[in-house]
Specification:
26 strands, 19 helices, Rossmann fold, binds fructose -6-phosphate, alpha/beta, Glutamine Phosphoribosylpyrophosphate, subunit 1, domain 1, six-stranded antiparallel beta sheet
Amino acid sequence: MCGIVGFTGKQDAAPILLNGLKKLEYRGYDSAGIAVCNAGGISLAKVSGRIARLCEKTDDGKNMPGFTGIGHTRWATHGAPTDINAHPHMSCDGRFSVVHNGIIENYMELRQELSSKGYIFASETDTEVIVHLIEMYYKGDFREAVMKAASRLEGSYALGVLCADCPDRLIAVREASPLILGIGIGENFFASDVTALVSHTRNVMYLDDGEFAELSPKGISVFDCTGASVHKKISHINWSIEAAEKGGFEHFMLKEIMEQPRAVESTISPRLQQNDIHLDDSDFSPEELKSIQRIIITACGSAYYAGCAGKTAIEKLCRLPVDVILASELRYAEPQIDEHTLLIVLSQSGETADTIAAMTECKKLGAKTLAIVNVVGSTIAKLADRTLYTWAGPEIAVATTKGYTTQLAVLYIFALYAAKTMKLLSREEYLRLLDALRSLPKKIQQALDMNPLLPKLAEKYSSNHSVFYIGRNSDYAVALEAALKMKEISYIHAEAYAAGELKHGTIALIDEGQPVIALCCNNKIWEKTANNIVEVKTRGAQVLALASKGNRAVLAQADDVIFIPQIDPMFQAAVEIIPLQLLAYHAAKAKGCDIDKPKNLAKSVTVE
Ligand code: F6R
C-alpha cells in the first residue's frame, strides 16, 4: 500500500527521500513522487511505474536541491496510476504540497465545494482536496491551515505537508493510517514504516490518531486537534539495518524463509522461562480465562490461514470452541459476541483495514481482544486490550513466510499457557508439550535443510497451469496457506481442497499429468488421504506427497515424497509449511517472476 516519507535537515532532501521510498517499495505501489522545498519554492517530480524512473528523472535527486521534502509511493485507488494522479499534489498557487495515505471518504462533496470556489483540480484523486483545503484556510499560519483542513476530512489519512513559506518545516498528521516520526541529530523524519527510517535513526515516536507533528531540523513538536501540546514517548527500534536488507540472498522472500528458525526462537524463548510461560504484560487470571465461552480468531489472507492451523491447539488444549472467521466477513456478519468472547486478531502489519474494522465491531459488542502482531506500535496493537508481538523482525517480501510461522508459534504458546492456567493439563503432559514447542526452531531448520531438493520438484510440479493441494484436518489447514503461496508469487492457479471433498466435484478436473500435492503428515488420518492419492493417480495425476519422517508406506502411493521432521502433531503445521514455501519460491523463480513484489499485491492492505 502507499508509503510516505518526509525529511528536514541540513543536507539535500531528495536523495534521502528517494532512498526512503526504495525501502518502502515492498509495500506495493504503482507510481511515485517527491516534492522538495527551498527558498525558491517547491519543486516536484512524479512518475507512474517504478522508483527507478523517478531516480532517472531527478538525476538521483541531484536536480532538486532543498533541505526539506516529502515523498510518496502510490497504490492507485481513486484514479488510474498516471503521472498526474501520483503524489505529491500541489495547491493551485504552488505554495503547498501534500502526500497522503488512506482514503478521504467525503472527497466528492469537498471537491464540489472547492471547485465552486474556483480551485482547479489537476488529478482524479481524493487526496487533491486536502491541498486545496489547506490553501483555502491559509492566512499566513501553516499549522493552523493544516489543522483546519484536517478537521474537514472524513476517512483515513496519514499526511505529510510542505509549505513554500516555511522551507525548513514539515507537518505530519495521522488519522487511522500509520505514521512514525524519526528523531535525528539536526535532522528529523517521518515515514509510514520504520524500514524507511532505520538507516538514519533508531529513535522514533508513534503518532496516534488525531495527532499532528511539526518537524524542523531542530526538533519535533506534537499536538492534538485543539492545538494542545502532547508529550510523546521515544521508542528505540532494535532491528538492525541488515534485518531490512537482503543480506546476500537473492530475494527477501528466501531470506525470510531461511530466517524462520531464528524468528520462531525469538517468538518463543522470551516467553518460555524454565518451565513457565509468561505472556509479556498480557497474563490472564484463571478466572478471566474460565469466563471465556468462545474464541473467535479473525484475520485476512495468510494470517487467517495461520488461525485455521492454530485453532486445533487452542480447541484441544483449552477445550473451548474456536471459530476462525475472515475479517472481511466478520465485519459485516453481525456475530453473536459478548463479554464472554475472546477475539484473537492476527496481523503481521497490524494495519490491515478489514482486520481493524472487524476488531472494532467485535469490541463494540463487548469481546475481549488479544492481538498477535509483528509491527510494534501498529494500529491493531494499540486497539487491542492485550498484544503479543511475534518479534519476527521486519518482513519485506510481500508474501508472508516468517509472519505466518511466528503467528502460529504465538497461538501455540497461548494455547499451552491458557490450558496450564486453567489447570486443564497434567504436569507431565504440560512439560512434554513445552519441550516439543521448544524444539520447533530446530525442526524448522531441519525442514529448511531440504532446500536443495526443492528446485527440481518445483520444476516438475509447477509445469501445469494449475496445482491441487489436498489434505485433511491440520494438513488441509496447511494446504490452504501452501496454495496461497504458490498462487501469489508464481501466478500458477493453486487450489487447496479438503481431500475428502474431491469426490464431490473437483475430481472432474483431474486429468493426465495434473500435479497434486498431497499432505499426509497428520498421522491419525494420513491413510485416508493416501486413498485419495490412489484415486487421483488412477486418473493420471502426478503426486508429490508430504509425510512424516519414517512413514515409508507413502512411498508406494506417490510419485515423489518429501519427509517432514517429526514434532508433536499439535505443532506440526509450522514445520510442514516450510518445504511448501520453498516449493512456491522455486516455482516462481523458475518462471522468472518478481518474487518480492508480485503483481497487483501490496504488503499492507490498508484499504477495504
Ligand atoms: C500472503 C499475505 C497476505 C497477508 C494478509 C494479511 O502472503 O501476506 O495474505 O497475510 O494481507 O496481512 P496482515 O497479516 O498484515 O494483516
